[in-house]
Write a structure and sequence with these properties.
alpha+beta, 5-stranded mixed sheet, 9 helices, 10 strands, elongated
């Protein structure tokens, strides 16, 4: 058993609370690899030598409490290697008792979760950026909707009614992309219809949908909805959906590419203002990143007659 513990991949150390200052009396190779110390530099010392300037008092209080109560606890604590580099340690600590229930040792197993916490932090930051971006888009879209509705309708009640309807549709379209159960499914037509109804200031007459009634796989659902949101937002602000006579044709089909089924999507804007390729690419970069994240590709043709976006999505997630 001692050999198994010594060669275990999980970093582990054992301390003796019956000696002064509860020193480490055993450590395995994985612990030494994680911290950068040698066995001679570790054995005989209290584990506080791993602490440093960013080790919080909160984590130390939790650690002291676990030792005092002789309980098994997992505590996230900032520790430091011999070279001075810090890492976030998910430390599990607990007592080892003899057959009579007397405390003889404490064990501590370490798990470096630095990268995991960094990824979680980055995910939160990206989510915040996406939320702000979408909120700005909603404001921009509603501004266009209200202006176009007011030009067409003289009755303030009608303007208010249409505006409220568009707000509800816009809200529903965005909420459909979040907080869905794991097994939620929707067809390509449903996603496209709800999105374009939310954004087209004149409703159904401003767009046409053509394609098979394919059920989108779960890994494409949110991505497809967000891509359509971005394309529609851009169209309202700069393209066909923001023009009185503007129109969007959305077509999709399934293609076979080297034994892999691909969903081809073609977004074509017509009868809108003359367009040129924008100098800033923030919107198109978001669309491109979303599609690439699921293994797809995107080409944008900034034709004078209107934007043509062609995207391909793999139907199987590898």
């Amino acid at each position: 058993m001692a050999q198994a513990v010594r060669h275990a991949r999980i970093p582990l150390c054992i301390s003796d609370p019956n000696q002064p200052d509860n020193p480490i009396v055993f450590t395995n190779t994985a612990f030494l690899d994680l911290t950068g110390y040698t066995e001679d530099e570790v054995v005989g010392r209290n584990c506080r030598f791993l602490q440093g300037k960013d080790t919080t008092e909160e984590s130390l209080t939790a650690l002291r409490s676990a030792i005092q109560n002789q309980s098994v606890e997992t505590i996230e604590i900032v520790n430091y290697r011999k070279d001075g580099s810090r890492f976030t340690n998910a430390l599990q600590i607990g007592p080892i008792l003899d057959d009579s229930g007397n405390l003889v040792f404490y064990f501590g197993s370490q798990l470096d979760v630095t990268e995991k916490r960094a990824l979680e932090r980055r995910a939160r930051e990206l989510a915040d950026v996406e939320l702000v971006h979408r909120l700005r888009n909603i404001v921009n879209v509603m501004e266009v909707v209200i202006k176009m509705t007011a030009r067409e309708e003289a009755d303030p009640k009608v303007v208010g009614s249409i505006t409220a309807e568009r707000l509800r549709a816009l809200s529903d379209a965005h909420l459909q992309t979040i907080n869905q159960p794991y097994d939620y499914s929707a067809s390509m037509k449903e996603v496209a219809q709800s999105t374009l109804l939310a954004y087209a200031p004149k409703g159904q007459k401003q767009f046409s949908l053509n394609g098979s009634d394919i059920i989108l796989p779960s890994h494409l659902l949110s991505c497809m909805a967000l891509v359509l949101h971005e394309l529609a937002t851009n169209s309202v602000k700069h393209g066909s959906l923001g023009a009185e006579t503007g129109h969007v044709d959305l077509n999709w089909q399934i293609l076979a590419d080297k034994d892999v089924e691909m969903l081809e999507l073609v977004w074509c804007e017509l009868d809108g203002p003359e367009v040129t390729k924008p100098e800033r690419s923030s919107g198109s970069k978001i669309v491109s990143d979303l599609i690439e994240s699921v293994g797809g590709t995107l080409t944008l043709d900034w034709a004078k007659s209107g934007l043509v976006a062609r995207a391909n999505f793999p139907l199987t997630l590898f």
